[in-house]
Amino acid sequence: MSNTLRSEFRLVGQFLGLVIKDGHKVKSVRLNVDNREYWIKIDKSIRETIPFNLAPGTDLEIAGSQKIDPRTGMIKYKADRLKVITHGDILEKKPRSDKACVLICQKSDCWKKGGQSLCRVLEDSLQEQGLSDRVQIKLTGCLKQCKRGPNVVIMPDKTRYSQVNPLEIPSLVEKHFV
């Protein structure tokens, strides 16, 4: 028996996209909640109910169970309820952010290979350039290049970088945001 701690969760945020495996199987939903990206695995019992035509930015409510692995401290989410929120369902809608952002993988391989120091250097570089109010840093789930970590994606143009050295950060900031 594992020492995994379980509890219920409920998140309301903006739909970012679906994670599809084997070309057609919906496995997870990517959700933006307060400028943080969550990857939430979808229980098999509700996978067929998810519309493939969901537009990015659509407001969703997702609920289910979360578990915390005591060894890694990582939280894994598994949804068994998903609801598209219409404007009548929301009392107050937060304005969408049009900021550019940098996605940094926070999964174990990338984090161990320097993702954490990369994040600190990026924060410092954005501050030095006066860009911290225009560019946000988002920690994400796996970016599917684990062996080549740490991995970074610069949005909105979706430029992907692997094996990023913290010394490269100032030039990347200059190239994409200055």
Ordered list of secondary-structure elements with their pairings:
Blueprint: E1 5-21, E2 25-33, E3 36-42, E4 59-68, E5 75-84, E6 100-105, H1 108-128, E7 135-140, E8 152-155, E9 159-161, H2 169-177
Parallel strand pairs: 3-5, 6-7
Antiparallel strand pairs: 1-2, 1-4, 2-3, 4-5, 6-8, 8-9
What do these coordinates show?
- Mean pLDDT is 82; it is low at 88-97.
- By secondary structure, this protein is of the alpha+beta class.
- 17% of the residues lie in helices and 40% in strands.
- The chain is built from two helices and nine strands, in the order ββββββαβββα.
- The longest helix has 21 residues, at 108-128.
- A hairpin with a 3-residue loop joins β8 and β9 (159-161).
- The protein is globular, with a radius of gyration of 17 Å.
- The strands form two sheets. Strands 1-2-3-5-4 form a five-stranded mixed beta barrel. It has a four-stranded mixed beta sheet with strand order 7-6-8-9, covered by helices on one side.
